[in-house]
Amino acid sequence: MRSEPDGFQEDLAELGSAEEFLDYFGIPFDVRIVQVNRLHILQRFHDYLAKQEAGKTPEYAAWRGWLLRAYEDFVGSSAQQEKVFAVFHKADGSSFMPLSSLGD
User: Which of 36, 25, 10, 17 is nearest to 69 (CA)?
Assistant: First the structure.
């Protein structure tokens, strides 16, 4: 783990999988949960990060907290319940998704 913002950004750019992110941030995880929900966890993590202040220098502790929260969202829940992706909204009977919602 690096403490300089540039080094932190470089580290993050090298991570590719949910497991790599969880390992990097030192978050213990159940492999079975990640195998089933890896894309959902990463998307939820992205969604949490997107709600943060634009232009704010990333901090390891803050990012770790958001990833932990994203992972924990799926520990006692499922992708169908969390509805991270639009396909799950459609499955609930909502067949309309505004175009503006696709950019987030």
Answer: 25
Q: Which long-range contacts (CB under 8 A, 24 or more apart) does 8-15 make?
A: 8/58, 8/60, 9/58, 12/58, 12/63
Q: String of b and e for 67-101 (b: at least 16 CB within 10 Å)?
A: bbebbebbeeeebeebbbeeebeeeeeeeeeeeee
Handedness of CA 3, 12, 104, 44 (dihedral sign): negative
Give, for all 104 residues of the chain, the pLDDT tens digit: 444 556 788 888 899 899 999 999 999 999 999 998 888 899 889 888 888 766 676 788 889 999 999 999 888 866 565 556 554 445 455 555 666 766 65
What are residue 57's phi and psi, to 5 degrees?
Answer: -65, 130
Of 52, 48, 47, which is closest to residue 85 (Cα–Cα)? Answer: 47
pLDDT at 89: 46
